[in-house]
Amino acid sequence: MDDKDLQQQKERFQILLKQLEMTDDQIYPYFQNGAILKLTVHKKSKLWDFSFRLENILPFRILQLFDRRLNKTFSHLANVTFHITTVKQEYDEQLVQDYWEFCLQEMEGVSPPILSLLKEQMPKLEKQKLMIRTRNETENETIKKKYGPIIQQAYEKYGFPKLTIDTVIDASNEEWEKFLEQKQKEDEERILQAMMEMKQNGKENQTQESKKQEGPLIIGYKIKDDEEIRTLDNIFDEERRVVIQGYVFEAETKELKSGRTLCTFKITDYTNSILVKMFGRDKEDNALLASIKKGMWLKVRGSIQNDTFVRDLVMIANDINEINPKKRLDTAPEGEKRVELHLHSQMSQMDAVTSITDLVEQAKMWGHEAIALTDHAVVQSFPEAYAASKKFGVKMIYGLEANIVDDGVPIAYNESHRLLSEDTFVVFDVETTGLSAVYDTIIELAAVKIKNGEIIDRFESFANPHHPLSATTIELTGITDDMVQNAPDVDEVLYKFKEWAADSILVAHNASFDMGFINAGYKKYLQVKKADNPVIDTLELARYLYPNLKNHRLNTLCKKFDIELVQHHRAIYDAEATGYLLVKLLQEVNERGILYHDELNERTGDSKAYERARPFHATLLVQNETGLKNLFKLVSLSHVQYFYRVPRIPRSVLLKHREGILIGSGCDKGEIFEAMMQKGPEEVEEMASFYDFLEVHPPEVYYPLIETEQVRNEQAIKEIIANIVKLGEKLSIPVVATGNVHYLNKEDKIYRKILISSQGGANPLNRHTLPDVHFRTTNEMLDAFRFLGDEKAKEIVVTNSQYIASLIGDVKPIKDDLYTPKIDGAEEEIREMSYNRAKEIYGDPLPEIVQARLEKELKSIIGHGFAVIYLISHKLVKKSLDDGYLVGSRGSVGSSFVATMTEITEVNPLPPHYVCPKCKHSEFFNDGSVGSGYDLPDKNCPQCGAPYKKDGHDIPFETFLGFKGDKVPDIDLNFSGEYQPRAHNYTKVLFGEDKVYRAGTIGTVAEKTAFGFVRGYMNDHNLHFRSAEVDRLVKGCTGVKRTTGQHPGGIIVVPDYMDIYDFTPIQYPADDTSADWKTTHFDFHSIHDNLLKLDILGHDDPTVIRMLQDLSGIDPKTIPTDDPEVMKIFSSTESLGVTEEQIGCKTGTLGIPEFGTRFVRQMLEETRPTTFSELVQISGLSHGTDVWLGNAQELIQSGTCTLSEVIGCRDDIMVYLIYQGLEPSLAFKIMESVRKGKGLIPEWEEEMKKNGVPDWYIESCKKIKYMFPKAHATAYVLMAVRIAYFKVHFPLLFYATYFTVRADDFDIETMIKGSTAIRAKIEEISAKGLDASPKEKSLLTVLEMALEMTERGFSFQKVDLYRSQAKEFIIDGDSLIPPFNSIPGLGTNAAINIVKAREEGEFLSKEDLQERTKISKTIMEYLENHGCLASLPEQNQLSLF
After folding, report:
1. Taking a C-beta distance cutoff of 8 angstroms, is the pair 27, 69 a contact?
2. Which of 344, 569, 697, 1081 is catalytic?
């Protein structure tokens, strides 16, 4: 370091000393020649770290003073730390001892016994070593290894050299022995005490409960009422003592490893949120802390600290008091409470944030007798609303806020039979001070007269509004105050215009607006009625003639026709441009054969009119069941036939289905309010007669209209409301005050803001401030309408809302019963089919065991009307089998013997048995001695000598239909993935197009998405929230509807004697009108108990089996299930002819469905199964929860029982308990309880013990959370064994199929190079462990298969331009030729194109290949580098001859 630098550093140090006021003569000498070497500033954690250089080590009192002053001086800026390096490191024992306690403070997180040992002594200095006394060897080691270095660093920090720390054992050995003895004693006492406590706890828990409920919760001291309460939004920094209060929205109490209890909860006062932590001080505290739950209101006192763990400010609480929140109350007297008739739930897409349940609960608490639900365009909250209304006893009014469109907006008004080609037209335009013909006025009127396509005259005039123009008007029109200042008055201008226009046809772009002002002006100033001239609207005319333009604004149309528009929104230029536009449009009209003015509205074949009209809102409320069905129809039509950006309902369609529905006039987007705002009361009268009631909202709900300058001020809003009320009186239509509710409390507004802000410019609500639209009480509503006078306010808020509610009957949107399809003769058909098939196999008469099982099942199936479901499944499966695809059954359908006989499943649930295919002789083993018929030894029939067929898996029927046989059967069928769409379409053939729908789903905002929205909102508005506040906002935004979708395989079937509208409306998934299938509008779970759902799923296994069958010609049903070579692969690699080391796997099950995953391979290594029934056990164990890990695994390892004895599938429990002698119905109950994770009750345990059930079995039952049905497991294993057969006996067919059907990611380069390269790649990915990407993990599985294949002596060739297929691996001798889509980056479509192009003839050159197949340059390079294009020249050769 040069002297100049050092000098600078010394100067800085002098300045610092002055700041610290440490320049006295007594102190200064110690700091002479001091320097500041460095200052590190940590911005995030607000920490300053100084590095000083001094001559000598400071005396301790000087250091203390320096430390204090330094911290104090900068405390408002940051926390300060420092360390000192000294030039002369001289010290003695006294100095070391002075510093001792101060240095111990540096030691955080030291175990308390060691800390007290250190604090209670003064170390000695012997030969430059610091000697510390300890009591025993353990402390010796701990201090030397763990704490020595910390003490060393602490001293170094203040300028000492590196001190050597040594220890000396001080206590005599006797003391140590004593100590150990004491400890042992204490431990024993503790154990005793713990046992006592556990017993006591059982008793205490009951008393605890009653203790807990008394009075509000207080932990620590009571917080006085006069203490200042801080709002959370002005806590920015660490503080000593603060009192806050608020609502707890998340709480958790957990025990730490140290045994202490920590309670953390997040609290909000709606200005911000904070995380609060409190440690329990004793047992009583712990119990109290555990009682802090979400939903409480608390007052908390404590300190604010920066928590390093959550990296945020948190409060460490000392005292917590429960408080009564200030709740909004409805103070209206009983019987005089309002009814909310306009309310949105979370199903109003991305717009409303409260669930209907919460809103209904609030209505109940306020004593409202009824509440309406009117979501935007959907009724998806009905099921939840129905449940909430039943739960809280509040009458539910079901409805919807619809988007209504007029069927066609007329092109011509005041129609008259005048020949267009010979008439005179006055094309005019007005500029105004605003949009309302009532409240605003004309400032410019200009027009051109046109005849025979030429402009023959012009009219132009400004009009004086007698008030300054608003900024918006000046900006939009370019008209300034001085232009209109000396202009004539409006009445004069209108008078001149009326004279000038005479009886010509008036033309304007968006004529309803311009004519609105002309008519209002004529009436107001000239005291004449409306203009009776015929009118043409060029906007509607253009929409009709050119429906495909993106919009029909004047400037867009002028561009299309090349008309000059000098300055848009100035009347004279607009009028002239519109004149030229009219000429063009009239030419087109003439060509279409429309000659007269009165023919313009008779547009023919115009089915898309609903797309052009602007939707307005209206509220529809259901009065009765007829209305409900009509509403369901309207919702369906709006989503299916009239969907354009939003679901629309044409007015004519609404009129057709109006029975049983009350129509209200909606919000400010409704036509009544809009017309009242823009056209004036007279115009509105004829519109109003369409409605059953008129709605008005509190004035503040309309505030955005002032902001967007549609109305001038609050006074104008109140006037419009008053006019609507008068209109109601005049026409005797009830006027009701509604709240347009979008959330429950005022504080919830922020959630709606975030959701709407996430949609950006697409949502018009982002263009202005959102109004307050919380659920208002009667008193809040009355206050809002007080300006109408108390009596009128009460009439519209209370009387009329109750009156409308009284017109509504009892409506049930969800049915109680199950309605299954009926097929005539289904019962007989199932009975006959089952018996015929059974007799084919078991002979006639049937063996008693078969007969009994069939009768038991048929009685149950037919008795409960499920025969149809079997018949449908049978037909679907039969169709698939006829089309050459096997079907795997999923779930418990395999427990039904009737399902086996009707070919729905291949799993035979009878006890294991032999049956002779020739003479039908059979032999059953129904004593539980054999697990599966497939495991019986081969045997010939004693009667005719033919080899026996073996079958039967011993599965009780009860697991499928319940003990009484009345559980709705859920038949899940696994079709081949490529066959699934055909199976789906076959249901349309079976039932008819309008009886089958895909099961609909509703996608709501998930936590992750909400987090994104909140983050986005923070960035857009430049805000920073604490993480607790982010959590609160995320919680508020989750659960709101975002989109709709469909279940991957579920098909809902409507019986032919019912209508889909009896259950649910319908729509397209995600409103994609091009989709093949329509879905249910309700989420299918809510109608699960009313309609039959078929699960027609797509799966790989049947596809694999199909391909193997095509390649080998072997019928999969004839494959033996007990081939010893095949069974060996489940426990070793022997039958594959490789060693474990070669393939890096101890079993041969790679690529076998259900048995190839790491988890299951591990299980196979531990259990080494050898029989089919043991494989079924493995399948059951691997799919259950807490069935294998920590349960069966330990039982097998400890030798308590064997693999075949542990509990694997749910059915095992029932079968085993019945064999043990338990009552069958009890055995069923126990199985149901265990499989759902509910464990056992003491009485059942008693019963099990009585019947000799071993203890390990009972314990095992108690641990289980979820179990697999045995039928499902058996079906899986059957598929697996068939595929394994090919793996052992036809390896190449197996590998070709595996890579074709199952593998998605390839590393074809490595695979071609052979086993060494593959192994290296596997090791590379494995080394990454959990850091491997999902793509690498799926590649790993493919590489393991490739390694096994190459080790078995097979190989991969390169992609071959002429022999490779698009997507199938093909066999060539002992090797596989990969398809084109195995090339990285080459998709299946591109692969298909290469194959198509190849069929057209050989490729002449690389250029020709690229042109014909359209593949990218990268892929060309890839093919070239791999030598696939070796035979091709660069460009086409011209052969000259």
Report:
1. no
2. 569
